Amino acid sequence: MKTGRIIKSISGVYRVDVDGSYYDTKPRGLFRKNKFSPIVGDVVDFEVENITEGYIHHVHERKNELKRPPVSNIDHLIIVMSAVEPDFSTQLLDRFLVIAHSYHLRPRILVTKKDLTTDSISQNIKHHLSIYEDMGYNTQFIGVDDDIQDVFRAWGPGLAVLSGQSGVGKSTLLNSYFPNLDLETQHISKSLNRGRHTTRHVELFERANGFIADTPGFSALDFDHIQKDEVKHYFLEINEIGEQCKFRNCNHLKEPKCQVKKAIEEGHIAQFRYDHYVQLYNEIANRKERY
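RESULT FIELD:
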């Protein structure tokens, strides 16, 4: 029996890395019976059938997982935004952050295409990133002249996952770090101001101090697993100041003696962050039940 990490999954075949040796494995029928599927990132025990193949017997407990794209045991979730093409959007960024926190992941923020910006766009992005840094987020704003090795090294050891809208440069980042990878990249659709999907499956690539995952880009964000009363907990500064509200179930909308509303008036919470919170709260509150 060997133990390794799943680094790729295509058509029911799971490629497992064991200290640089690769095995193409399939799960035992027990998994199908229990309606449980291994995913990329899982640590598994498998029985070797021959030099390169085997059968998975056991999946170790996951410390965390993303549902879409399916990947587990994530140490660093890197939310990749672009400065332009598509334009930087704090609303979209906040939605990615909410999903990250809902899966108990601590995200980092990476903004690409700095070299394509004007001075005013660059200053605007730096201003907004400083607000996120004050909340405790690690941020990076990079262009083609930045040392990609330094960019990746800053994340620390373990499994890093790149996530973000299509067209923001995730595949370009990986191509820069792994010159032999040659991942497909796409031009931005001018009519939609977003890229077409280029990555069609999750795959882990070995980096200096761990792994990095290339994941399919998102064209839509799924909040089905989040209830309206949970949203406030996923906006860090709103959650922190909200602890001081008079009523424990305060959703910071029209409740009396709300400390969050007071903090906005005093400039301790950015208005755009609160606006995005209210918008998402209402969106989830008004969604139709699916049967």
